[in-house]
Amino acid sequence: MKSKKGITLIELLVVIVIVGVLAAIAVPLYTNYMQRARRADAKTALEQLRAAQEMFRAERGVYSTDIAQLRGTWGVPAVSGDYAILLNSATATTFLGQADPSGSPRQASDGSLFINQDGVKTPADKWAK
Q1: CB-based contacts of 25: which residues, under 8 Å, 6+ apart?
Q2: 9-60 and 67-74 are packed helices; what angle lies between their axes, rounded to 10 degrees?
Q3: Residue 99 reports pLDDT greater than 90
């Protein structure tokens, strides 16, 4: 008897199903990983904003009310990944930095991240991850 070489249609379908199941598991995990990575970039940018504000205050005795000053002198980014870095409100003694993802469909569901002059980060659950 001659042996036949090759694969059957059933074997091919089984392989396709296995690859499909693996892809169905891997794609959401990868998407979640990328979302967390972009959020981490925004957190870093907000920490840079806070550090720049503290340096500004050490030099001049007050916090900056103009984010353009912080961007030019201390390198605070305007955008970090999918987040716009903003100075939400600022006075001589307080400030609230914001990372706003509203312009990004990939991060819009994430919501904004905030940091103030005391280093309080909100929402806390987004900073913890």
Answers
A1: none
A2: 100
A3: yes
Which residue, 68, 81, 89, is CA-closest to 107?
A: 81
Q: Is-contact 74 53, C-beta < 8 A?
A: no
Domain ranges in the chain? 9-128
Q: Is the peptide bond before 77 cis (omega within 30 degrees of 0)?
A: no
What amino acid is encoded at 4 in this protein? K
* Segment 33-53 mean pLDDT: 91
Indicate the Cα dihedral angle 46, 47, 49, 53, nearest 10°. Answer: 140
**Cβ 83 vs Cβ 104: under 8 Å:** yes
Percent of the chain predicted with pLDDT > 90: 53
